[in-house]
Write a structure and sequence with these properties.
Family: Belongs to the DHHC palmitoyltransferase family.
Strand order of the largest sheet: 1-6
Structural class: mainly alpha
Keywords: Acyltransferase, Lipoprotein, Membrane, Palmitate, Transferase, Transmembrane, Transmembrane helix
EC number: 2.3.1.225
Protein name: S-acyltransferase
Number of helices: 13
Membrane topology: Multi-pass membrane protein
Strand content: under 5%
Length: about 350
C-alpha cells in the first residue's frame, strides 16, 4: 500500500507540473506544435554553435574585433536580427480564412444595425470598397462573407465547389486548407516545418525578409570560416577538421538558402505562390491558363508595392481575373511594358 501511495503521489505531482508547464508554454500543450518547437531549439543551437566556434577557435577574429569593433558589431547585429526575424515570422499569423469570415460577418452585422438606425433618421449609408489595387479589403465591406466570396468566382459557380469540407467555410481564390494547421489560409504558399506555421498572405513578406537575412548571415559566416582556415591551416589538425566539417555543412545550407531566396523573389515579382506554381494543373481556376501567363500579376512595380507596402490588412483577397484581363496578359511584351515595369 505504501508503494502504491508513493506512485500515486508522484503521478499526481508530475501531472500538476506538466499542467503548469503547459500553461507557461502553450506550444507544449499542442502535440502538433511540439516537433516544431524542437526544430526551433535545434535551429537556435546551430546558430550559436557556428558563431561560437568562430570566437572560440579564431584568435585572429578576436584581435580584429579589438582593432575594428564595428566589423564584429555589425556581424553580431545581423546574427541577432536574423534570430529575432525568425521568431517574429514564426509567431505571425498567415491570415486564416475563418478569421476573415468572422471579421466580415461582424462588419456586416454592425453595418446592418447602423443602416437600420440611419434609415430611421432619414440618412443613407453607402459601403466603400478599395478596388484601386485590384484587391478587396475585407475590413471595409458591408456584405456577407458568402456573397463577397462568390462574387469573386465566375457567374454560375456553386457554393459547394469552393467550400472547405474540413473548416466548413467558403474559400476565396488562392486559399487552401492546411492539414498541419487544420485551417484554411489566405493566399496559401506552403507550410514551413522549421517555422512551425503556414506561409500565407499575412506573413509572406516577413518570411522573405527572414530568408534574405539568413542568406546574408550564412555568406558572411562562410567568409569568416574560409579566412580562418587560410590563416590557421598549419596549426592544430583537430581544429581544422572541425572547421572544415562545419564549413562543408554550411556551404550546403548556403546553396539551399540561395535557391530558396531566388525562388521566392521570383514568386514575389510575378505575384504567385508556391502552391499555385507546383499544383497549377490541379487548381480548377488555373487549369486552362497558359503557364507563361501570370493571372494575378499586376506588373513588377505593383507586385512589389503590394507585397511590401500595401499589406495594411491581412484579410485582403484578390478576385479571379476576367477573360479580358487574361487575354491582355497573354499578349507578347513590348518595349513600353518593360520600361514601365508592366511585364509579368
Amino acid at each position: 500500500m505504501t508503494i502504491v501511495g508513493f506512485c500515486r503521489s508522484n503521478c499526481y505531482s508530475w501531472h500538476r507540473a506538466s499542467e503548469r508547464c503547459f500553461q507557461l508554454s502553450p506550444c507544449l500543450s499542442d502535440p502538433a506544435r511540439r516537433p516544431s518547437l524542437g526544430l526551433k531549439v535545434a535551429l537556435v543551437m546551430l546558430h550559436l554553435i557556428y558563431v561560437g566556434v568562430l570566437f572560440l577557435f579564431g584568435r585572429d577574429l578576436i584581435s580584429k574585433t579589438k582593432k575594428e569593433p564595428w566589423y564584429t558589431a555589425i556581424y553580431l547585429l545581423l546574427f541577432a536580427a536574423t534570430l529575432v526575424q525568425y521568431f517574429f515570422t514564426s509567431g505571425s499569423s498567415p491570415g486564416y480564412v475563418i478569421d476573415a469570415m468572422r471579421a466580415v460577418n461582424e462588419s456586416h452585422a454592425i453595418s446592418r444595425k447602423a443602416s437600420m438606425t440611419s434609415n430611421q433618421n432619414g440618412s443613407l449609408i453607402i459601403p466603400v470598397e478599395d478596388t484601386q489595387s485590384g484587391k478587396v479589403i475585407l475590413g471595409n465591406n458591408t456584405i456577407s462573407w458568402a456573397k463577397l466570396v462568390m462574387d469573386m468566382y465566375p457567374p454560375g459557380s456553386s457554393v459547394r465547389s469552393w467550400a472547405c469540407t474540413y473548416c466548413n467555410v467558403i474559400q476565396p481564390p488562392r486559399s487552401k486548407h492546411c492539414h498541419d494547421c487544420d485551417k484554411c489560409v489566405l493566399q496559401f504558399d506552403h507550410h514551413c516545418v522549421w517555422l512551425g506555421t503556414c506561409i500565407g498572405h499575412g506573413n509572406h513578406c516577413r518570411f522573405w525578409w527572414y530568408i534574405a537575412e539568413e542568406t546574408t548571415l550564412c555568406i558572411w559566416t562562410c567568409i569568416l570560416y574560409i579566412t580562418y582556415l587560410k590563416a590557421n591551416i598549419t596549426r592544430a589538425w583537430w581544429k581544422d577538421a572541425i572547421m572544415i566539417l562545419l564549413l562543408a555543412t554550411l556551404s550546403i545550407c548556403l546553396i539551399f538558402l540561395l535557391l530558396l531566396f531566388l525562388f521566392h523573389s521570383y514568386l514575389v515579382l510575378t505575384n504567385q505562390t508556391t502552391y499555385e506554381l507546383v499544383r497549377r494543373r490541379r487548381i480548377p481556376y488555373l487549369r486552362g491558363i497558359p503557364e507563361r501567363v501570370y493571372p494575378f500579376s499586376k506588373g513588377i512595380c505593383r507586385n512589389l508595392y503590394n507585397f511590401c507596402c500595401a499589406s495594411s490588412s491581412i484579410y485582403s483577397v484578390e478576385p479571379l481575373p476576367t477573360p479580358e484581363e487574361l487575354e491582355a496578359k497573354s499578349r507578347p511584351y513590348t518595349c513600353l511594358d518593360v520600361l514601365s515595369c508592366c511585364c509579368c
